[in-house]
Amino acid sequence: MIIFLIGLATSCATLAGGFFALRFKDHLHLVLGFSAGAVIGVAFFDLLPEAIGLGSPVYTLGTMTSVVALGFTVYLILDRFAVLHSHDEDHSHGSHRRGKLGAASLSIHSFLDGLAIGLAFKVSSSVGVIVAIAVLVHDFSDGINTVNVILKNKGSIREAYRWLFVDALTPLAGVLATTFFSLSESSLGLVLALFCGFFLYIGASDLLPESHHGHPKMLTTIMTLLGIGVLYIAIEFAGV
Questions:
Q1: Full residue range of the structural domain in which residue 219 is found
Q2: Long-range contacts of residues 78-86, Cβ cutoff 8 Å, at least 24 apart
Q3: At residue 67, does pLDDT exceed 70?
Q4: CA-to-CA separations, 52 to 64, 70, 105, 113, 187, in angstroms, rounded
Q5: Over the chain, what is the mean pLDDT?
């Protein structure tokens, strides 16, 4: 029962982050700067260490980092394909595709968060609590990032709400899914490494350049550094 309550808590945290982003959408460049830092922080301080820790008994460090590079490359190709596919269409339509691609990636990551919680509790309650805390501390930024990637790519407020609710429900779905199957730690490590590459691309190649475009560079840079710092502190605190 406790894992379902935790899954519900992650959904609430995601919704809270999304509502925050929608409330301050008029200052989108600042929120985008923070989101870029938060996404990069999640990749470096959460996904990468967790992936290496889970995969190290079976896979070498070189293999794990290669999977990260594969994730970055795959997302690059998908992103370019979305742009090329809209070559003969209006620019906003191509942006919509990129926004949906980013939101879908973030939502799948949230589903994996739920899987991680459920599988961790199968190991032990203490491990489950640690993983749950780690998930909770960055789910707020997940909600922000999901809304921002839609709005940044010319999506509507209604579409941002729709993807926010999808992202909020996927952790709970992930927790529920673990009642039907199990995934080896090494396999989960590979999946997390892949998404680490996805997030590095979203943060560094999508959100970060857009946050600086046509806006004061110093303030948005400070917000990006703040996003990285907040995620670092939150994840370090969660690991204590």
A1: 2-239
A2: 79/201, 79/205, 79/206
A3: yes
A4: 6, 15, 20, 16, 11
A5: 82
